[in-house]
């Protein structure tokens, strides 16, 4: 009985002092994974007789193994020093982008037939990251100034190229709401187009990489690219309009990290798909048929992402460092509570619901306004009812 009680007390002691052992535990788990996965990679390379695809898969796996400990260490440090949930919850969500991208790309090289499903899920998380970065900047801005009154005397913010011809946007809440909804539309559009892509792939009409009129790929690509462009424009516009207020948190490095990962993966994919469409890759690898050329193109994209994620993980350790939050008050709960807070997406659900409601109200209001003159034109017969202001002015002049 005494031994059981001592064991319970020891277990409780370790739970209370979890910060002392959580980091060594993460390192130990990583070493175990490394010792198990690395031999698996070597055996797989030997069985494949060192084919080019197997070599790329092996090299990409090494880069992923170098990337994961850097990314997980930074995530763990934020969970340990979880002192400002309004900021760190969104930072942790952003930091998860590197391991998700890296593992996703490596699995895409291992399972090329499932690339379409993994790539679309990865791009959905990209929209989630852009949303979280905006909310992170917005929460910092709210802490610095009063949004309702701080920008009343500011001149309207001019639109950026290529929308210079559009009228400026009034500073303060109107600009913030427009930027927020401009980014939220991507978090709605991307999952919808992903679901459509899944359905089209199962029906055999998706045609990945084909720019033909009878497949869904070019249409969905245009929708996704336009939606992503609008989201990135709104993010840049928000940053440019509030650059002075956001300067204390050094937003430029953070913004460049987000933009680099998003645009590198996007433009790489676009260039590789263009090379496939123009026949450059097929002429380079003459022994491959059309299907194998597409697999080669996807594998090349995934291989480059595996390498780039190592650079992104290193950049994130500086741009989204945990050090500013060390010792800044007491940590909010245990590490597990911090992790659950990061997984809680009720804030995203609330913002998306609000965005859908605003869009629905705007469409309804626009349709109502456009229908009112038509209804007036056809159903109002009396001149007094049709032109009340003109008749009233004429009556007033006659009375004078």
Topology:
Blueprint: H1 2-16, H2 19-47, H3 52-80, H4 85-95, H5 97-110, H6 115-144, H7 147-150, H8 173-203, H9 217-241, H10 243-246, H11 251-278, H12 280-284, H13 290-319, H14 335-343, H15 346-379, H16 383-386, H17 388-399
Question: In short, what is this structure?
Answer:
The protein is mainly alpha-helical and 400 residues long. It has helices at 2-16, 19-47, 52-80, 85-95, 97-110, 115-144, 147-150, 173-203, 217-241, 243-246, 251-278, 280-284, 290-319, 335-343, 346-379, 383-386, 388-399.
What does this structure look like?
By secondary structure, this protein is mainly alpha-helical. Helices cover 78% and strands 0% of the residues. Helix 4 packs across helix 14 (335-343). It is globular. Mean pLDDT is 76; it is low at 374-400.
Tag the structure with descriptive keywords.
single chain; 400 residues; mainly alpha; disordered C terminus
Please provide the count of β strands: 0
- Gyration radius (Cα, Å) is 27 Å
Mean pLDDT, all residues: 76
Q: What portion of residues is helical?
A: over 70%
Taking the alpha carbons of the first and last residues, their distance comes to 107 Å
Largest sheet: none
Q: Please report the number of helical segments.
A: 17
